[in-house]
Specification:
The chain is mainly α and about 250 residues long. Helix content is about 85%, strand content about 0%.
Length: about 250
């Protein structure tokens, strides 16, 4: 462990977020256990992804954004409100630009984009924690985010597989959404003073983007197959993500 503590904070942030990325990939791996895509499986996976993303949008994004804004003496209502609104509007504009795409392609793209945006501030948060000079707390934060990434990896890869992607491609895209974390983990530690005031905005921006995708794409699609199955798995996904976030702080 001493070798790790002797490293510069940007390198520590990079290594820690490589770990969180690896857990995203591990979370995406259950896609190889899926034997056959059916309408009910598609519905269940869409509901599960909805629940995971809804819980993550609050417990992993908005709540930490509020804490960060208050700790820095920033106007939380303005930072969170502007970030959340612009995140939703941003995904709406992407959605509008993709109207000519097939509905399934568009939905998959928005799902991937929103989860990738969600991982950017998480990577930055780990990097900023290392840059602040408290490696013990930063390591615990990286562990918590990594464990939260497990269901998030599945929330991407399983719906993609059920929606027509091959297992290999669904896994590749699922783990790829976490690839931004090492990049921003390194940058967060390198630019800690500049990143800290923007963290509440980035976190709430990602939350708004995720909420838009859940409401606009995932829930309507899964409800179109079976409202009961979709609702049950949405609750299950929310419960899993909530328990992980609360338990891991």
């Amino acid at each position: 462990m001493n070798w790790f503590l002797r490293l510069s904070s940007p390198v520590q942030g990079l290594i820690a977020t490589l770990f969180t990325w690896a857990l995203t990939a591990f979370g995406a791996s259950p896609v190889f256990l899926v034997k056959k895509s059916t309408d009910r499986l598609l519905c269940a996976m869409g509901g599960l992804a909805s629940g995971v993303m809804l819980a993550a949008s609050y417990f992993s994004l908005l709540a930490p954004a509020l804490v960060s804004a208050d700790a820095q003496g920033l106007p939380a209502w303005l930072m969170l409100g502007a970030g959340f609104f612009l995140g939703g509007i941003g995904i709406y504009l992407v959605d509008a630009l993709m109207q000519r795409r097939a509905e399934t392609q568009k939905s998959n793209f928005l799902l991937i984009l929103s989860m990738t945006l969600h991982n950017i501030p998480e990577g930055m948060a780990v990097g900023v924690a290392f840059g602040a000079g408290d490696p013990t707390s930063a390591c615990l934060l990286a562990l918590g985010i990594g464990l939260q990434n497990l269901p998030e990896g599945s929330a991407i890869s399983l719906p993609l597989c059920s929606g027509g992607y091959s297992r290999g491609k669904a896994f590749f895209v699922g783990q790829l959404t976490g690839a931004v974390e090492p990049v921003f983990g390194f940058l967060g530690a390198l630019l800690v003073a500049q990143c800290m005031p923007l963290m509440p905005f980035f976190l709430s921006f990602a939350s708004g983007a995720m909420i838009y995708v859940v409401i606009s794409e995932l829930i309507p699609e899964s409800h179109g197959i079976s409202r009961t199955v979709s609702s049950f798995f949405t609750i299950l996904g929310f419960l899993i993500m909530m328990l992980l976030d609360v338990a891991l702080g």
